[in-house]
Design brief:
The complex is a heterotrimer. By secondary structure, chain B is mainly α. Chain B has 15 helices and two strands. Chain C starts with 9 loop residues before the first helix and ends with a helix. Classes of the chains: A alpha+beta, B mainly alpha, C mainly alpha.
Chain lengths: ~550, ~300, ~300
């Protein structure tokens, strides 16, 4: 008896496992019900009902036009029952059906499903979805080469017609940026964010300057002197040598990172960008004739011991920590960090430090920064399979309005926040929304990168000092550099190898005991052989074509 | 003739009667492996194709060995390949015996609560991610603010300290050391579980014969877990080319990249994130083939030594 | 816990002392990192900024923990993760044992072939895209099944379990067969009770990997209601410095909690449940009791 029972039990177990393994047939049902919110468009009656209800609730100006558009202009899709999936990179995942998202749907009369992925997994997720033909309706193209690939594969929609008809804000806000991208010739495939990014300031502790009776540095010499005094003359007056002048970390130095960008500027070098040499060759910033001089200057600061010495190994947050805890007196970062986001809660000293911004000039009065750009070819793109392009246009249009920008950044007005003084940008969060976590769970801040207008809420709510810093940095973006908006074949193939060589070169130049020029020549030779020369040729050719696009 | 055939047939029936249930038990596992491991295996073909992540894999163009040639073309990959071998070998040599030794040490503990504490503690580092571990390594090894600086000051040394994390001479030792430390727990626990399976009577008998602790450890414990050791060794060797992506990605920096860059970090850099699936797959396949060759070799050796062991 | 006592020689005493000292050092070195994380997470963010080692919390506070539990989503994610871990581990143990046991029987024909068939998949895999397409074709995207089925059997764990089974004396099984027991009976009533330590190990292996796995959650699931705790938490701590709160102006980021404190808290609340479960599994590691008990 017992034995038979056991046998039956065991056979049952096997059967159960078999069923679960072979999967499909048994699981079709649950998947169909739950997958609706994912990749497939919901066609259930309930979904339609809610859309209908929302339609009648809102008195959108664009709504009556929708039907007209469907009849007369068949060049874009406008299925309002289809859900628009948007892939957003974010460092928090808000609640599934949050206030901000509801409000956005209501305002734009669309069904939206925003998928948030952390920045480190964004490209993996996106690439997989694309490869499986599950392209999200709206996603972020991060650089010119990806954009080029999407275009060649034909997965992007040309939004020109629908944007011109339905999204006046987008057309107006991006009118200067859109034509700068070659891919957008007679079309709009890429919708860049319209906000002007914040370039890096030289942020200096003015309380330390006062303690030491020093002036704000204005040129390379006085900068080096101030850094020296910050390190050796006890600027915090505690009698211990526990301070440094300048703090930076390596990953912020190599590539287009912000650190030392103003110093390179004083040598006329647009750090991280392309330059045109006197003979007309277009090449990278590290082949600028003054590069060696600039590196020698920086190396001089390091050898003088005025730079926080762990720069190779220090994690970024720890590097900021040096500034927060009063161990470093100068940092190159955009003003919004030191003077807004961190002020005053992150600073451990009492009273918190006072900050100022310096403009450093070179020998012949050269100074400046290259314009900060979020990677050329970066912006929002729309899938060619999108079922509701008109809905996307409405979303883009709303997000690029002041009202939309406020919603995505600050949340729902008078529920989540309230303006104290809109002119000055003073804002107060209400009730539980004072708490960052609650605010973000309700959808505040997390989507704020979506179709950003030229005057986004984050800029309008900056503290006065930060605003001053940002303005100064903008005024200083006077360095000319070469703007090329075409994908490079060479970079596509060898770009990371080339970058790797330069990263190693710069690190070695900061640490080596060898002659700097020898090191430089060795690495540049390798860079040229790895594709650098071919790339220069390619870029020079592109520049011939694009020179006028830029002007 | 007839009788032998019949007896053969009978034997077969007898065999099947005796073993049919074992075959039945294997079915779920085999179905699983087939569906979830072998069905997607066609993806390996990407290594020989020009596939950039758009469209169907089957429709991508065959390019032969182009992707492999592309990899070996650059100095950086050749360097990564060399580093990969050095680092994996060092990890194997130092990392493989460590958990065995630790398990034997823990097995020797006679106090129950102490044993529990040790057993639990060895596994802890495995739960903490490399990113966090790196923060900790920095806090300890920073020559300016780290613990080693404080210790040096206490003993009266205020001169320059080496920066272990940014020195080409020492960085591989850091990689291997931290790997052994973090990865030891999982192996230790496996061996400890294997030790519990050893027949206690063997120890009692040996004690009566006057065997000391070391003799028992050597002849009974080690012999008892030999099978597990060989299995783990073969598996480890199959993965020998995986030199620890997440570790090196988290703890290396541009000053030591020339000694720490491995195949996986190289491939990650040149564009797994940009959808260059062909190159990544080619590199993966290359690593797997090396692993396979080494496994066949190890398996062959281990069977020479002990015919019962080995995976294949 | 040997029943037969004997006298230790002085040499053995010394070596035991050395081993004990070594073990104390090892325990410290092994426990410290997690202790550091825990203490950091309990410290005031600003006090923690000065770095160094943490042996006790600096200005004790629970603010980061309170911030984490203020959202609804974390509870949804936590529930999903617990459910996933328990169910997936259960399924995995069954299928692993069912596969490992036959492969541990020396007389089984075709055994080596099956082993090679399985081992091969440890070395070669089809990669992300074909797997994603398969899961899509099986209609498992955005379902809970995707947490349970695709990672059900680990070849690595299966081979280890097979080794444990092999170590069980054949004589036990032989005698059971003579008593008329089937192979399933032997597995359930003889082999399993003898392999408690092995199963504790397997439970831990599968449990930990199920608990920590996040890539499945990122790739295969878009539905927030199915989000896993690891996916939720990872977003919090893997902020890309250049794009996050650090550079764009963000009022909310000015809160007194640093990214580092948040990261430590996230690690602490991820690891604590594992440690608790693991210390419960410990009791199956006590040796020397099982073989005897079955024989009697």
């Amino acid at each position: 008896m017992m034995k038979r029972q056991r046998r039956i039990v065991s056979i049952l177990l096997i059967v159960v496992l078999l069923c679960s393994v072979s999967g499909c047939s048994g699981e079709q049902k649950p998947s169909e019900t739950t997958a609706a919110s994912g990749t497939q468009a919901p066609t259930s009656a309930a979904a339609k009902e809610t859309t209908q209800a929302e339609k009648s609730e809102t008195t959108q100006a664009g709504q009556p036009e929708t039907t007209v558009a469907e009849e007369t202009v068949p060049s874009w899709t406008a299925d309002d029952s289809a859900e628009i999936t948007i892939l957003v990179s974010s460092d928090t995942s808000p609640d599934a059906d949050n206030l901000v998202l509801q409000e956005l749907e209501k305002q734009t009369n669309t069904k939206i499903n925003i998928i948030t992925v952390s920045g480190s997994e964004y490209s993996t997720k996106l690439n997989t979805m694309i490869a499986a033909d599950d392209v999200p309706d709206v996603f972020w193209s991060s650089n010119i080469n990806s954009l080029d690939k999407y275009l060649k594969a034909g997965i992007l929609a040309d939004m020109k017609a629908v944007l011109e008809a339905k999204a006046p804000n987008v057309i107006e806000e991006t009118k200067d940026i859109i034509p700068r991208i070659k891919a957008n010739e007679n079309a709009i495939y890429l919708i860049p964010n319209a906000d002007r990014l914040y370039p890096a300031n030289v942020v200096i502790r003015t309380d330390w300057l006062e303690n030491l009776n020093l002036e704000m540095p204005t040129d390379l010499d006085s900068f080096a002197k101030v850094m020296h005094a910050f390190t050796y003359d006890d600027p915090d007056g505690n009698g211990i040598k526990d301070t440094y002048g300048y703090a930076f970390e390596m990953s912020g130095f190599t590539g287009s990172g912000k650190q030392f960008i103003n110093i390179f500027g004083a040598f006329g070098i647009p750090k991280g960008q392309k330059v045109e040499l006197e003979d007309g060759t277009v090449t990278a910033w590290f082949k600028h004739p003054n590069f060696m001089k600039a590196m020698t200057y920086i190396r001089g600061l390091i050898d003088d011991g005025v730079v926080e010495p762990d720069f190779v190994t220090i994690p970024r947050m720890e590097m900021f920590g040096k500034f927060w805890t009063g161990q470093a007196g100068c940092l190159e970062w955009d003003a919004t960090g030191p003077a807004n986001n961190w002020y005053p809660t992150r600073y451990t000293e009492d009273p918190p430090p006072t900050l100022g911004f310096a403009t450093i000039k070179g020998e012949d009065g050269t100074y400046g920064l290259p314009e900060a750009v979020d990677g050329l070819g970066s912006g929002w793109v729309v899938s060619a399979n999108c079922k509701n392009m008109e809905g996307v246009a409405r979303i883009a249009n709303f997000c690029m309005s002041e009202e939309g920008a406020d919603l995505l950044y600050l949340g729902v007005e008078n529920v989540m926040y309230r303006w104290i003084d809109k002119e000055k940008g003073e804002v107060e969060y209400l009730g539980d929304y004072v708490d960052t976590a609650v605010h973000r769970a309700a959808g505040g801040y997390v989507y704020s990168k979506l179709f950003k207008p030229s005057s986004p809420a984050d800029y309008r709510t900056l503290m006065p000092l930060a605003r001053e810093g940002v303005q100064l940095a903008w005024d200083n973006t006077v360095l000319e550099w070469v703007y090329i908006s075409q994908a490079s074949e060479v970079r596509n193939e060898y770009g990371s190898d080339m970058d790797g060589i330069i990263t190693e070169m710069i690190t070695e130049m900061l640490l080596t005991t060898e002659d700097l020029q020898t090191v430089y020549d060795r690495y540049i030779k390798e860079w040229e052989e790895t594709g650098g020369s071919a790339w220069e040729e390619e870029m020079t050719g592109f520049w011939e074509e694009e020179r006028d696009l830029w002007r | 003739m007839n009788t032998t055939e019949r007896s053969k047939w009978k034997k077969q029936i007898g065999y099947f009667r005796r073993y049919w249930m074992l075959y039945a038990m294997l079915i779920p596992g085999i179905v699983y492996i087939t569906v979830f491991k072998y069905v997607p295996m066609y993806g390996v073909s990407i290594a020989f194709k020009d596939y950039n992540g758009f469209g169907k894999i089957a429709e991508a163009e065959w390019v032969g060995l182009k992707n492999f040639r592309r990899l070996f073309e650059t100095n950086a990959f050749r360097r990564a390949f060399y580093n990969n071998i050095i680092i994996s070998l060092a990890k194997l040599v130092f990392g493989f015996p460590a958990p065995i030794i630790l398990a034997l040490m823990i097995d020797g503990i006679r106090t129950k609560w102490a044993k529990r504490i040790v057993q639990t503690s060895v596994i802890l580092p495995d739960f903490v991610s490399w990113v966090v571990i790196y923060g900790l390594m920095y806090a300890i090894f920073s020559p300016n603010t780290g613990v080693i600086r404080q210790v040096a000051s206490v003993i009266g040394y205020n001169g320059k300290l080496p920066n272990l994390l940014a020195d080409k001479e020492t960085f591989r030792a850091v990689i291997v050391g931290s790997h052994v430390w973090k990865g030891m727990g999982i192996g230790t626990v496996t061996y400890l579980a294997a030790i519990t399976g050893i027949d206690q009577q063997l120890y009692d008998a040996a004690t009566i014969d006057g065997a000391g602790r070391w003799q028992k450890t050597w002849h009974i414990t080690l012999t008892g877990i030999r099978g597990v050791i060989i299995t783990l060794l073969i598996i480890r060797i199959g993965h020998i080319m995986n030199a620890g992506f997440s570790q090196i990605f988290a703890i290396s920096n541009s000053a030591v990249v020339s000694v720490a860059d491995i195949i996986d970090t190289y491939v990650y850099r040149i564009g797994l994130t940009q959808g260059r699936f062909s190159l990544a797959t080619a590199a993966g396949l290359f690593k797997s083939v090396i692993g396979l060759v080494l496994v066949l070799f190890t398996n062959w050796i281990s069977k020479k030594v002990d015919p019962d062991s080995g995976i294949m | 816990m040997s029943k037969v006592k004997y006298k230790k020689s002085p040499g053995e005493r010394v070596s035991e002392l050395i081993i004990n000292i070594l073990l104390v050092i090892i325990v410290f070195v092994m426990i410290y990192p997690f202790w550091h994380v825990l203490m950091y997470s309990l410290s005031d963010s600003r006090a923690a900024m000065s770095g160094g080692l943490f042996f006790y919390p600096r200005k004790f506070t629970l603010i980061t923990y309170r911030m984490l539990i203020r959202t609804k989503q974390i509870f949804i994610a936590f529930k999903n993760s617990v459910l996933k871990t328990v169910l997936a581990t259960f399924f995995s143990l069954i299928i692993t044992a069912l596969t490992a046991y036959p492969l541990s029987i020396p007389g089984l024909k075709g055994r080596r072939l099956v082993q090679v068939y399985i081992f091969f998949t440890m070395l070669f895999s089809g990669g992300i895209i074909p797997t994603y397409l398969l899961i899509k074709d099986l209609h498992m995207l955005d379902t809970f099944w995707v947490y349970l089925i695709p990672g059900m059997l680990s070849a690595h764990h299966m081979f280890i379990l097979r080794n444990f089974f092999q170590a069980i004396p054949d004589s036990l099984e032989e005698s059971a067969m003579l008593d008329g027991a089937s192979h399933m009976d032997i597995l359930l009533w003889i082999v399993l009770p003898l392999s408690k330590a092995a199963f504790a190990t397997q439970t831990m292996f599968y449990g930990v990997s199920n608990w920590n796995e996040y890539m499945d959650g990122v790739l295969y699931v878009n539905d927030q209601r199915l989000q896993l705790l690891q996916v939720y938490l990872r977003q919090l701590i893997y902020t890309d410095g250049s794009k996050s709160v650090l550079s764009g102006a963000d009022l909310a980021a000015s809160a007194a909690v640093t990214e580092e404190s948040m990261k430590m808290t996230v690690v602490a609340i991820t690891v604590l449940p594992v440690i608790i479960v693991y210390s419960f599994l410990q009791k199956y590691y006590m040796k020397g009791i099982m073989i005897g008990s079955v024989k009697e």
